[in-house]
């Protein structure tokens, strides 16, 4: 969770950072704040950075944190939260993740983050990790990690996780609610990464790479800082219709950024996970109609599917004791429904057509009701529970979801 001296570099000067106070790091000339053990290294925020450091040096960490929590990305459409909005974050220790996102004025993004654990795009990422994260990987860094959904998956499987994102408040939510033990850093991916050469066994970037305008630069930095695999998931395809608001490019252009990568239609990975089978790779010319693509390349040139798993599966729950019925399948009274109840029309239009695996048969509804009453943990039920978890009908959600 804690960054050691000289482990990070200044992305703008290339000089190593050392801790020069409990709340800051310095390269000898420039200082950057560290709040909740999250270094704030964003570009083009010099004035804000100085204000934050001044608040910290005056002993007002709350004021510094408020400044950080109000900082948004360049895609944000709404107004940032004001101090009144944020007060419950400091006054109520029992806030849920969803309540915290409301305080931060996340709007529609809050729906996405609250229910991402069963979205088809999230499931595709699990399949990508299942079949292509090297079995020997001990460290992984996720670029644009958001509030830490995948970081949580890494940590529960014993993989040391680092999360990087341009929005501080998302990292703060990861620290407080989702992946408390991950090491986190707030950075701008369009500049040099603050990591040494070959720092990680793998890089992972999911449902975000298409947003980055400097894709060639980012790809080069991913290659520089990994000694193993690079996994890019759910990259929107400019040749196909999708819900992208980013800077998508074609499948061929994505592939050209890396060294002969393995390519997938994102929908194929989702289907493979739900159907419990290996995914089928695609050639570039077969992906023109794919709404999103995934790709894998390896720094050592060994681009192939993992055959022998030496870690817990990403497609099965780590603990059945913590499983909860997917909230999308519960009505306002907590009654189980046969089909998901989506939080908005936009959310439903984007995910419902690809989420048939969340629909329940009458028999499955009865099984879930039995689980609610306390089902006996025999072998047959264990298989049923594993299947329901693989289909994301049962979820291992954060305690304060």
TrEMBL record:
Pfam families: Methyltransf_11. One of its GO terms (biological process) is methylation. The lineage of its organism: Bacteria, Pseudomonadati, Acidobacteriota, Blastocatellia, Blastocatellales. Residues 142-227 form the Methyltransferase type domain. It comes from the Bacteria. GO terms for molecular function: S-adenosylmethionine-dependent methyltransferase activity. Gene3D superfamilies: Vaccinia Virus protein VP39. It comes from uncultured Pyrinomonadaceae bacterium. Keywords: Methyltransferase, Transferase. This is SAM-dependent methyltransferase.
């Amino acid at each position: 969770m804690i960054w050691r001296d000289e482990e990070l570099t200044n992305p703008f000067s290339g000089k190593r950072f050392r801790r020069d106070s409990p709340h800051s790091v310095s390269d000898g000339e420039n200082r950057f704040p560290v709040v909740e053990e999250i270094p704030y290294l964003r570009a083009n925020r010099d004035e804000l950075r100085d204000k934050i450091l001044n608040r910290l040096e005056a002993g007002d960490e709350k004021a510094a944190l408020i400044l950080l929590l109000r900082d948004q990305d360049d895609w944000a459409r709404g107004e940032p939260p004001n101090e009144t909005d944020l007060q419950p974050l400091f006054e109520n220790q029992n806030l849920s993740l969803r309540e915290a996102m409301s305080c931060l004025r996340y709007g529609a993004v809050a729906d996405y983050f609250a229910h991402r654990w069963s979205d088809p795009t999230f499931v595709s990422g699990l399949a990508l990790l299942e079949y292509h994260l090297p079995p020997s990987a001990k460290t992984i860094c996720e670029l644009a990690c958001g509030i830490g959904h995948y970081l949580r998956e890494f940590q529960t499987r014993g993989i040391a996780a680092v999360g990087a994102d341009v929005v501080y408040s998302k990292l703060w939510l990861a620290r407080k609610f989702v992946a408390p033990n991950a090491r986190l850093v707030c950075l701008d991916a369009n500049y040099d990464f603050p990591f040494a050469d070959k720092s990680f066994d793998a890089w992972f970037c999911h449902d975000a790479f298409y947003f980055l305008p400097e894709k060639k630069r980012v790809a080069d930095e991913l290659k520089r800082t990994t000694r193993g695999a690079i996994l890019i998931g759910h990259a929107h395809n400019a040749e196909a219709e999708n819900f992208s608001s980013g800077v998508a490019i074609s499948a061929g252009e994505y592939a050209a950024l890396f060294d002969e990568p393995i390519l997938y239609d994102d929908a194929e990975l989702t289907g493979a996970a739900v159907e419990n089978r290996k995914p089928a790779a695609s050639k570039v010319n077969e992906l023109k109609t794919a709404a999103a693509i995934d790709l894998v390349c390896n720094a050592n040139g060994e681009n192939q599917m993992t055959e022998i798993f030496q870690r817990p599966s990403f497609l099965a729950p780590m603990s059945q004791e913590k499983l909860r019925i997917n909230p999308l399948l519960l009505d306002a009274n907590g009654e189980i429904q046969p089909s998901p109840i989506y939080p908005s029309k936009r959310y439903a239009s984007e995910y419902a057509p690809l989420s048939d695996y969340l629909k329940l048969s009458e028999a499955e509804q009865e099984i879930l009701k039995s689980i609610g009453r306390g089902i006996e943990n025999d072998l047959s039920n264990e298989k049923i529970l594993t299947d329901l978890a693989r289909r994301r009908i049962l979820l291992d959600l954060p305690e304060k979801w």
